[in-house]
Amino acid sequence: MAFGAFKKGKIPRPAIPSPAMLRAGPTPIAIDFGRDALKMLQLNTSEPASLIAAACVPTPDELRDDDTKRFEFQSKEVARLVRKGGFKGKRAVCAIPSANTFCKHAQFPKVEEHELAAMVQSMLAAELHCDAVSLVHRYFPVHGAAASGGGRTEVVCMAASRGCVSRLMGAIKVAKLEPVGMHTEFVGLLRAFDYVTQRKEDAERATLYLDLGASGSRVVIAHGKDLVFARTIEIGGDAFDQAYAGHYGMSIEQARADRRRARASGEPAPAPVPAAVGGESTSDRRMGQSAPGLAPAPVDLDRADPALAEPIEILADEVALCVRYYESLFGARRLDGAVFVGGESSSSALCRPIARVLHVPAQIADPMARFARSGKEPVTGVSMDSAQPGWTLPVGLCLSPTDL
Hints:
Elements: E1 29-33, E2 37-44, E3 50-58, H1 67-84, E4 91-96, E5 102-109, H2 113-128, E6 135-141, H3 146-149, E7 152-161, H4 162-174, E8 178-184, H5 185-191, H6 194-197, E9 206-212, E10 217-223, E11 226-233, H7 237-248, H8 252-265, E12 286-287, H9 309-330, E13 337-341, H10 348-358, E14 362-364, E15 379-380, H11 392-398
Parallel strand pairs: 1-4, 3-15, 4-8, 9-13, 13-14
Antiparallel strand pairs: 1-2, 2-3, 5-7, 6-7, 9-10, 10-11, 12-14
């Protein structure tokens, strides 16, 4: 059940797509209110799957740090793009920004489902110091975790304020759209890979998804389609921009522009001063081929811009901590692979040192690659001719349950 389906006295249960939920034909319009940009996407799931329309509106620099004004700007852009962006129909699905989503792993006694739901609700209200009715929440029991063997159940708990959800739904309705789904970014990005994990040989693969965004990064570990770990790390594009600006003595705006151009080209940003800068383009998709189960290795920064060395190393350490927590839950089980998504993952020079720490086969996702394009589709503000890992969440939203 999606977030918006929460009502007082009812506890939403996790849902994954089913054939009934995902009808062939035009998907709902996916809306991603990101810090770096507003993204809207619509796909056609009939064979062959294809692109209907896409639009991206970058956030003006002066609005990035003002959540209220940024949302007002993006809400107006949604209404404009609905009229002029070439999208079809009125159904829409939206992501709750991770900055507005509380996510926590917790352990509870083994009890009946309705009792577990009440415990989760009570815990979240206590953690967030608010009344339970002011929250919209979901929870995901982690099946097979070590905690279950000790008479306790490991649960991934997520919550957002009802006010935040109401604002998102209000923006959709003002644009004269019908909200039919609302999901966390953690769950939304997973749905972009259902076409892979539904295959028998991949149904139980342990995969780490690292979503490198602007305001932060999200770590999701899944066994096939099933989420078993989720966490937000507060290091992302903004931290990289600040480090770049400080190292080269420039404004944040100039650093962001330099790095944005570099991501668009798939190459490291050219250093304003002589430095050992290197890297490979995103056409080299495979990284970190070391065998699994080895001890953590030092972060390999030889291909990364020296300006970004510190935030990359911190991020890699945080990701390694996530992996160790996962391994504590599942004992001898190890990750089978890693997938990098999000706008920042366009730079393989940034992803590579993190991949080497994981010691598993890793790749940068291109979620749009499997959708046919004639070249005549209405596309605004983005080129779909190059790899677009930053569009993983909108793709996943298009393919998510519509059960509001």
